Amino acid sequence: MIFRQLFEPVSSTYTYLLGCADSGEAVLIDPVMPAWERDLQAVNDLGLRLVMTVDTHIHADHITSASLLKREVGSRIAVPALDSLPCTDVGIEDGVPLHVGGLWLDPMHTPGHTDNHFAIGAGDRVFTGDALLIDGCGRTDFQSGDARTLYESVRGRLFALPGETLVYPAHDYQGRWVSSIAQEKQRNPRLGGDRTIESFVELMAKLDLPYPKFIDYAVPGNRACGVCPPDLPDALRVYRPQMAESPQG
């Protein structure tokens, strides 16, 4: 498997490029609108052809570039079938593999951050979206989030994977790139160790996090598979499709 991890700094989002060397087909997991040209260039530089984009859930902190990439290269849009979005080409379902050339992607329904959130397994690694972060987890206070459900998704499903499974999250805000299931089970301060479901629910209820500054634009934009609203305030225009400076080029 050809693999690249790409970082978008405005929303601190990781996009993952997976390619099949035999077929030349590629998929992008959680692509971000401002970085669509960079991502497509990365695909082209590797001699691959983008055939699919996958969004793990309806994001609240950025807008997907799925529709832009479909317009440019004809890639299919894969999003959770449970969201019933009209722009869906491939509905992601629990346990129903996604095939990109010789790649086998294994969707796992991991609700709690949002009700229709999915993680994506691929061989020795899992792309956990916002459900499981490095030493953390996603919020549960909007978009039908539920702390009790997230606890069960992470502890019951993701932590059931082999300990050596590499964990690649959708975000990191401290420059970290990768973890493992064993590491998160042992030391994740929110969900690891002997954390009980009751204490996790209490912890999440007391976070008192600020209202997400982009959610009112991101959610409707992502329900259309990547449409930037025309009334975006000047302070949020970095979320538009222009290239943003990125450590990955």
UniProtKB/TrEMBL annotation:
Pfam families: Lactamase_B. GO terms for biological process: glutathione metabolic process; hydrogen sulfide metabolic process. It comes from the Bacteria. Transmembrane segments: none annotated. Keywords: Hydrolase, Metal-binding. The keyword tRNA processing does not apply. Residues 12-171 form the Metallo-beta-lactamase domain. SMART domains: Lactamase_B (SM00849). The keyword Hydrolase applies. One of its GO terms (molecular function) is sulfur dioxygenase activity. This is MBL fold metallo-hydrolase. It comes from Cognatilysobacter lacus.
